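[job 4471] stage=fold_predict status=RUNNING
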Amino acid sequence: MCGRYILAQLAAAEQYFKLDRAAWDTTANYNVAPSLPVPIVRLGKDGKREGIMVRWGLIPYFAHGVPGRFSTINARIETFETAAAYQWPWKRRQRCLQVASGFYEWHVDACGRKAPFFIHLADQEVFAFAGLWERSRKPDGTSIESCVMITMPGNELLRDIHNAGANPHRMPAILRREDHEAWLRGSAEEARALLQPYPSDLMVGYEVSTRVNDAKNNDAKLIEAVDCASS
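[job 4471] inference complete, writing structure tokens
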């Protein structure tokens, strides 16, 4: 499971994602937690790319705007095409780019010490998780939009780092820049084929402070490398 990530270069994201219009908050966030509003890129009704803010944690259309009891921040690649919450946005081609600059995963060492690691891409500062978005209408007629990122078995780096929690050895589905258009506009078959582990040699991971465990902490020091004694 990927449960925390960061957004640090949104000022440049509009150009990077080739947006036609944007309505998102460009404030840096070094500890994005579930249920917070996050920026995504999707296709508008006119087919143009738009950047908007939605809730992280998908609320199915049939839930009438009410979040469920179970986590919907991650959709497993093995089941998202048939799972009740995710199959409909997938079938309706409601695919999105969930904007990020890096993410956290937790590692348990041989002594049982659990520590967070920060992972980012070596070849680009801003990138996109492969996501799905949904709109759920409340009884009062208003609606809430939300998203979920797709996860998959980890590459060599993530299999080594991410060995903690209920879903170890996994990673978010990270899209290559050249695949953004196909993810947004392609057929189901074309989009599904893009879901491949990002290459380990293009990723960097290192231990950071356990301060990230508290979602109230939100500053650039969270992504600074630490050694065992100072974490």
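[job 4471] summary: The first helix runs from residue 10 to 16.
[job 4471] exit 0
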